[in-house]
Amino acid sequence: MLVRTTAGDTSWMERDNEVRRLYTGLTPAFRNPGEPLTRLRKAFLRAAVDVPGRTRTLRVVTYVQTAPGGQADHTLLRLRHYAERVFEVRREIHDATGPVAPRERNGWRLARRLLHEGYADGIVALDQAAVSPDPALYTEELQWLGERQFFLDLLIAETDRP
Question: From CA 79, how far away is CA 89, in angstroms rounded?
Answer without folding.
Answer: 10
